[in-house]
TrEMBL record:
A single cellular component GO annotation: outer membrane-bounded periplasmic space
PANTHER family (UniProt xref): MULTI-COPPER OXIDASE (PTHR11709), MULTICOPPER OXIDASE LPR1 (PTHR11709:SF2)
Keyword Heme: no
Record SUPFAM superfamilies: Cupredoxins
Organism name: Cohaesibacter celericrescens
Keyword field: Metal-binding, Oxidoreductase, Signal
One Pfam family of this chain: Cu-oxidase_2
Signal peptide: 1-30
InterPro entries linked to this entry: Cu-oxidase-like_N, Cu-oxidase_C, Cu-oxidase_fam, Cu_oxidase_CS, Cu_oxidase_Cu_BS, Cupredoxin, TAT_signal
One Gene Ontology MF term: oxidoreductase activity
Source organism, top-level taxon: Bacteria
Name of this chain's protein: Copper oxidase
Transport found in the keyword field: no
Length: 467
């Protein structure tokens, strides 16, 4: 499904005023210092006009869940209480975390059963923009609203609360009444093609919010793409924006992205520096459709009399790869519609004929679909790892490495990674090859998967071990 105006109900869409000032810890803190996060069903209006509220799965009654804001180096303590009817767990995306707290059902912990709870406790080593989301049947649970922002503040003064805005972008697949399209959950068509794409975009859970900024003042906009599978296409120049950070990790200097569209993949974050000009409002627009589709408006007030200075962000201490001594691994990505998949092993058995439809395993990494007993590779603590991803499919993918940030060494036919920014998720184009490097410095079992959540469920998931 493409995001085009035709897919939307034609009606006057009034801009809903939305308070964007973060409310740190806007939820129950138990006596013992644990923040309580409950997964519960709740009603929320995500569609404009007269549409009724939609039934979502949320953290503490709202999607996105409450913004967790902590200082770099602090300990986060969260008591997760599962009040849904199916097991769940929480993953802290992009945090270089203690493996036992990574929240991956079936790899680092048992999924938390309905009515049960799990205590997460970890230290946040890097300042920046991160997020948390369900990591059991994510294709279902994240699509229904189980996600929230996790902001790690720098230990020095930067943008104050008024100039530091989190914008969580989601696409929902809804019917004409704004209800989640239930029938299409798990659709074979999505799993074998581009994933579950929505037909309605929200920012911080609201339709078409209007955000008021003051002219001449410097803002940090923290964009988080929580879509199941949509690569948001945007033009950063039209926003007059520079990039401060990718995936939480600051660039040396705020950078102009001179190409358009900028492809913003599922699970990625980008921190933008925006200094609005007097009288020049602008919009966030999705550019993948036939015509640009605006989904958030920025109104600019004031005359910009008193200019603000631009705070600079210091890099986090991520170990630099030693490319000379690196171990090399290759990930051959196959499958999907219009692609070839070759031999596929799933749970130790080779799939044949009808097995593909029955198991819904349409993709594979090195001929293995989904988690197997043996890891993709093992590394010793401190070892530099280079992974070559060969995307032998007709689709783009959003590749995510758990527990580590990496640098892109080279990306076939592209120069956009100049300066080798740190990322935890990167987009790889159809038939493209990309090499990444990182120091495997965190012991444990780490997932590596496509963050197009249907692809992950349909085979594009593996893991590696650091010991
Ligand atoms: Cu954000 Cu394994 O995921
Ligand atoms: Cu994918």
């Amino acid at each position: 499904m493409k995001l085009t105006r035709r897919n939307f109900i034609k009606q006057g869409i009034g801009a809903a005023a939305l308070s964007l000032v973060p409310a740190p810890y806007s939820f129950a803190m138990a006596q013992d210092g644990f923040l309580e996060i409950r997964a519960i069903k709740s009603e929320q209006k995500i569609y404009p006009g007269d549409a009724p509220e939609s039934t979502l799965w949320t953290y503490n009654g709202q999607a996105p869940g409450p913004e967790i804001r902590v200082k770099q180096g602090e300990r986060v303590k969260v008591r997760f209480i599962n009040e849904l009817e199916e097991p769940s767990s929480i993953h802290w995306h992009g945090i270089r975390i203690d493996n036992a707290m990574d929240g991956v059902s079936g790899l680092t912990q048992e999924a938390v059963k309905p009515g049960e709870r799990f205590e997460y406790e970890f230290v946040v080593p890097d300042a920046g923009t991160y997020w948390y989301h369900a990591h059991n049947k994510s294709w279902n649970q994240v699509a229904r609203g189980l996600y929230g922002p996790l902001i790690v503040e720098e230990p020095y003064p930067t943008f104050d609360a008024e100039h530091d805005l989190t914008l969580v972008i989601d696409d929902w697949r809804v019917d004409r009444n704004g209800q989640l399209d239930e029938q299409s959950f798990g659709a074979m068509m999505d799993w074998s093609h581009g994933g579950r794409l929505g037909n309605w975009l929200t920012v911080n859970g609201g339709s078409m919010p209007e955000i008021v900024l003051k002219a001449g003042e410097a803002y940090r906009l923290r964009l988080i793409n929580v879509c199941n599978s949509r690569v948001l296409e945007m033009d950063l120049n039209r926003l007059g924006a520079k990039v401060l950070a990718f995936d939480g990790q600051p660039l040396g200097q705020p950078e102009v992205i001179d190409y358009s569209p900028y492809s913003f993949g599922p699970a990625q974050r980008v921190d933008l520096l925006v200094i609005p000009q007097e009288g020049k409002g602008f919009a966030l627009e999705e550019l993948s459709g036939d015509t640009p589709f605006p989904y958030a408006h920025f109104k600019v007030t004031g005359t910009g009399g008193n200019k603000t200075s631009i705070p600079s962000l210091k890099p986090n201490a991520i170990p630099a790869p030693d490319l000379e001594k690196a171990s090399q691994h290759r990930l051959h990505m196959t499958g999907g519609a219009m692609g070839r998949i070759g031999k596929v092993f799933y749970k130790g058995k080779e799939l044949q004929g009808e097995d593909f439809r029955r198991t819904k395993q349409f993709w594979a990494f090195n001929s293995v679909a989904n988690l197997s007993e043996s890891p993709f590779f093992s590394a010793e603590i401190g070892e530099t790892v280079i992974i070559e991803f060969i995307n032998d499919t007709a689709f783009p993918h959003a590749m995510h490495v758990h527990g580590h940030h990496f640098q892109i060494l080279e990306r076939e036919d592209s120069e956009i990674d100049e300066g080798r920014p740190w990322k935890d998720t990167f987009l790889i184009g159809p038939t493209q090859t990309t090499r990444i490097a990182f120091v495997a410095d965190n012991p444990g079992k780490w997932l590596l998967h496509c963050h197009m959540l249907e692809h992950a469920a349909a085979g594009m998931t593996t893991w590696f071990k650091v010991t």
